[in-house]
Design brief:
Elements: E1 6-8, E2 11-13, E3 17-19, H1 27-37, E4 41-45, E5 69-73, H2 80-94, E6 98-101, H3 114-126, E7 130-135, H4 139-147, E8 154-155, H5 169-178, E9 184-186, H6 192-201, E10 205-208, H7 210-213, H8 218-238
């Protein structure tokens, strides 16, 4: 049985794994990782790519846009003005109104500035963007972002690139209970078991970059992450058994042959 499809705004995806495009040793390595992962959407840091580069040198040439949708992001933006202008540039350059919104509040932790994210999101939504905001694992912030019209929320699991895994599964569970838009875990996943755990909680999808691009074998890790996301989602949809303190015999005790 196949997993239920992921619906974000007006687009439907079979894959629940979204990948980044940075930190790979080469564009060819990135392309191979994308292919084996089965991803149907990748993020592109619009401020970190040369939009005027010739095709043979452009990272964008290594993304199969017939199969993979581009999700430009506002990485490295620290103010509302920077984020809004970067989103506008991305829409013009890449011909998409989808944007992963990042407004960073602290350069050391790369935690988002929640107030600025809310302000920028409101401006962009009013301009017709489909906004997917990077945010803390804060249920209140996620509710506010949904209320103003964000089509998904993207709470971090741990700091960007840290590989610490799911630091606060309880906050994620509260977010999942309190918002109705897709919840996409963004940042902090380090290994396949982290990915499976996030999906088992009921998260809609995962976005990751460093865990794959920084692995000793990015292509093999991309495959492992794909399998983990699929397994975790299947486990969530199947419904796990309740936890119990004491043993519960697998076979019924009634009708046991007596000595």
């Amino acid at each position: 049985m196949q997993n239920q499809k992921l619906q974000i705004s007006n687009k439907t995806f079979h894959s629940r794994l979204i990948l980044g495009t940075g930190k790979y040793s080469s564009n060819t390595m990135m392309q191979e990782a994308h292919e084996v992962s089965g991803t149907q959407m990748v993020t592109v840091a619009i401020r970190r790519i040369d939009l005027k580069a010739p095709p043979q040198e452009s990272m964008l040439s290594y993304i199969n846009q017939d199969k993979i949708a581009l999700l430009p992001n506002t990485a490295a933006c620290f103010t509302v003005k920077e984020a809004v202008q970067t989103a506008q540039l991305a829409r013009e350059a890449l011909k998409t109104n989808w944007i992963k919104l990042e407004v960073i509040g602290d350069p050391k932790t790369l935690f988002p500035d929640v107030a600025a994210t809310l302000e920028a999101a409101k401006i962009l939504i009013d301009e017709g963007f489909v906004v997917l905001p990077y945010v803390l694992d804060d249920p209140v912030a996620c509710q506010k972002l949904e209320a103003i019209g964000c089509q998904a929320v993207m709470p971090l699991a741990a700091p960007i690139g840290s590989g610490l895994g799911i630091r606060n599964p309880y906050n994620l569970k509260i977010i999942l209970e309190q918002v109705s838009v897709p919840v996409i875990v963004d940042a902090g996943v380090g290994c396949p078991s982290d990915a499976a755990r996030a999906m088992e909680l009921g998260c809609s999808a995962l976005l990751m970059n460093t865990a794959i691009a920084g692995a000793n074998d990015p292509v093999k890790m991309a495959l492992a992450m794909r399998q983990a996301v699929e397994a975790g989602r299947n486990g969530f949809e199947a419904g796990r058994i309740a936890k119990k303190l004491y043993a519960n015999a697998s076979s019924p005790m009634e009708g046991v042959i007596q000595p």
